[in-house]
Every structure is written in structure tokens, then in C-alpha cells.
Amino acid sequence: MQQLHPNYSLTRTKAEGTTKEEFINPLPRAVLRPNSFMLLDGEWNFAVDTQDDGITQRWYLGHQYASTALWPGSIEEHMEAAGIKERWQDKVVVWYEREFPLPQLAENGNGHSLLQLTFGACGYETMVWLNGKLLKTIEGEEVHHGEYTSFSYELHEADMRMMNRITVRIADTMDADIPRGKQESHVYKRGGIWYQTYTGAVRSIWLETVERNRLRSRVGVVSIVEDNLVRFNLTTRVQDPGNYILRLKIYNRKHTDEAPIASDEFPLKLDAGEKDQRVVVEVPDAKYWAPEDPNLYVLIAELVDESGYAASIETHFGLRKIEARGCCVYLNNKAVYLDGILYQPGTATYDEIKSHMYAMKKLGCNLVRIHIAGVDPRIYNLADKMGLLLWVEVPSPHSSTQRSRAFHREELLRMLALIGTHPSVVIWSLYNEDWGAQDIATNPDTRQYIMDMYHYMQIAHPQFLVVDNDGWQHISYTGRLKSDLLTAHLYTPDLERWKGLLDEIVSGKMEGVAAFPLIVGDPFFFRRQVPLIVSEWGGFGFSDYGGPKDSDERTMLIKAFKEELRKRPIAGDVYTQATNIEDERNGLIDAKTGELSVPEGLLKSANRP
Fold this sequence. Notes:
The protein is an alpha+beta fold and 609 residues long. It has eight helices and 34 strands. The N and C termini lie far apart (62 Å).
């Protein structure tokens, strides 16, 4: 069996062919641990469970697999490689299995460590067995739901053998209640702006040593730039109740070998289980994070037990403040125009994503709107370092039901737990164009749910701006907009019609501008109370939005349309889109090479107040 990472001792030995930079941040998450790990990526046994009887037949105790598959990868890729040409239509169930020898803990003998198994992302439904025993996630789930964020299992020594067998069952359906973004479902079929499914074992899987009593790999950061205070939200994971010290040390990112620029300690009395804890540290003479100067600091957080043993994690963060006031968006108390672009990575590799990000920067963008998809989480680290603002969206369900709203909320909370440390992430959309909230204009329950989540975000995550339903049909309650931004999707290839639409929308016209009324619920009178953003426009090259254009004609149109945007009191815009994807042939960047088909700086606004 092919092994892509031969290091079974869980030491820091570097695998052949890896580079120093890759090893510094090898796993798809924001938090680093000074521990040892072993990737389980590579060749796995693979089978499609066409009758969904693998559980009743107890495949987890032993099964004859006819095919193999390379993890990570999608179910669709693995079925095709196994010679199954037709795509699954309604429901798919697949099984993966491999063996690995008993790792020797590098910290063996001190009694502080245990093994943790982590999936970078997998789903939509995932079940895992170790040597035939069904595992539960750290959250206590026998079946993990979701396919865009990581989840972990603690492995107990009593369940391990000299040679261990891990078995994974993954199931997905076309259920329209499931958060799925622009993947096809029972409601929206593939074609046009709806894409094929890409599901299953889509991220890396690894074993690592972690401490019994530790901080989890999730850190939230809220900074107050007026007085250089930083609020850190941390999650403790404790097996042994007792008294602990939470110790924080902050370093300049380029000088971690020097003394910390700030440090503090917080005594905690912790029961077994998990606890969220917010603490505040002052960073003296802080430099702020901004696109033109993406200054980052390093946080080392330690959970110290009564014996003095310290379990540590490391992450970077930046001090920044984002606000929506009146006509403008303010970053660190300075008005900033958002020169944005819509981005759908699709099945792009991380190297391709990286080339796309640098190309978007060359176009003059300071904002990338990651459109309604789960993405490789390394994209957030990259944006932090490059100085790109990110607009993140929850992958939407395709039907509006109580069940779909419950799934949506769970997906949002999982994403928030893992993205809260990144200064680049500044805007969140709860919904897009009422996908999954089609009855937003008529159903008070739908509006109430969205308002509840908007209020939750304001209280629990004040470091973000929040859009209730991007594009149109924003919610007004007693004349107050339940969105930090008033956004509109405007598509026309005609310049004169474009001028007219912009004039109408800045004058406060709420109907007849976008595809649906801009406001639902109670009457809302714009009066420039919140910033106005044209969050989708252009689409030149996509037949539905005006037909194919060659690069020269497209360049001229973009320049003219962009000039009209900047003549008006508009806070930002998002051009559609960065790269071609399936039937949408309207990209400005080659999806494979990252080369631009238009001049550099095309989307950058001219300097003006």
C-alpha cells in the first residue's frame, strides 16, 4: 500500500521530499502544535455500498475491497477511478479502509499525551471505526454531519494494537436541506451556475499527539484598536479536573526568538470536559493589520497544570477593526473602498488557489468574496499574510425548512469556531440570493431565524460585518435593517442601463433595481444609513449575463462600469468573477496557470476621497 508519509514514530523526522516551509505549517488549520503527527493520506481500500447494507453486514469487522482510492479526493473521482462511469443520482454510500502500525509516542512515558485522529473535512455523514469499534468525535457524535470543517477523535490506548485498522463510512444525498452551496441537489440540477457534487474525503486525515489537558485548535480574536486590547476566545479540553493557569505570550511575528512583547496569566478552575474562555491582553504600541501593511503577531497560549506541565498551541493574529458607518466601511477607523472580486475555487488545488490569490491582488483587489463554498482552510492563512480582505459565506441549503435552518446554523457555528483567528476575514453572509430562504418575504419563521443569527453574530463575533441575505430581500424589522451592509446584485451588459440602475439604487429605490425587491419585512428608508455595496456585477463572458466578450472588449466594459461605480456614494463592489468554473465562462484569471487575461490593476479604484 502506498504511504505518502512514512513517519510512523510520530517524531519530528522530516519526510523525504518535503520542504522546511511545508513542514512548519503542514496541516490545514490556523493553529500549530509543537507535537508530532502522521498523515494518513495515500492509498486506501475503497468500495461503493450500493445497497447501503454495509453496517448490517458489519463491513467494519472485515470486508473484501475490490478497489483502492487516493485520500484526499472526492467520491466522484474515486468512483470513476474504480470504473464506475455513471454519477450517483440520489444517495451514495462508500467505505474506506487502511491499516497503520501502532505509533510510538515521542512523548511516551510522561503520561501527558494521547493520540488524536483528525479529518480536515469529510462528509456529509461520516462514521469511523478503529479495529472494529465505533468511535465518537470529541463532541460525542457517532455520526458526524457536515463536510466543510475539521473534526477529531481521541484514541484510547486500550483500543490500539500493534497493527491498527481504520474504517470510514461516508454517505451523502441530494437532500436540499443539507448545506451544499452551488452543488446540485433535488431542487437545483447541474448546469449553468449549478455544479456537480464534490463530496467525501476531500481533506487530509492525520494522527497526532495531543495532551490530555490542553487548548483545542480554535482561537477567536476580537481586537479593540483604540486601546490596543485583544480579546482571545480559547477552548480548554480537560481530562483531569483541577486548577490550571492559562498563560498567553505575544511576539512580533518576525522576532519570536526574542522576549514576548506582552504576556499574562489567568488562573482557571476546570472541570472535566470543555470550556470556552475569553481573556483580554494589551499589546503595547501595536501595529494594525491592513491590506497595505498586513502586520501579524504570534500568540503562544499554554494551559499549565498544577505540576507545571504546559500544553501549548501557536497561531498568528492581527489587530484590526471593521465597521459599517453611514456611507462607508471603515477599517481601523479609516474609510476604505472595497475593490472586490467573486471567487469560486471549485476543485482547484492549493497551489492553484495560491496562484489565483496573487492574481487577484495583481488585478487591484483588496477584497475576495469566497462564494458560498467550503474551501481549503489554508486560504485564510494566505490572505492574512498577503493583506487580502475576505468575505466568507455559509454554504447554503436549497430549501427553506426548519430542518434546513438547523443544518445551516450548525454549519455556521462549525465554520466560526475554526476561522475566528484570521484578521483577513471581515464579512460574513448568512444567505445568498435567498437560496435556502426562498420564503424570506412571506415566512416570519425564516426571517426570525436570520435575525436571530444576525444578533448572535453581533454579540458573539463583533469582529465581523454580517450580511443577512446577500443580493436582495434584506430584512427590515421595525424599520431597522438586520444587515450591516445593503448589498445588491446588478447584472446588465449595457452601460446606459448600468448608469440608470446605479442612480436608482443610490437614490433609495428599493424595487425594480435588482431581480427582487431589496427589502422585505417592514418598510425601510435607505437615507444612506448603512453602506451600499454592489456585491455582484459584470459576469461579462457568461451567456446569461450578456454573452461572450473577448478580453479587449471585456477590459473596456470593466473600466467604464467601474468608473460609474466610483462616481457615486457606494462603499464597494464585487466583480463577477475570478476564474471560469464549469459552465460559467466569465473569469479574468486562468484557472490552471493563474495568468491574467486582462491588464493588471484593472479592478483597482483610482485614488479619491
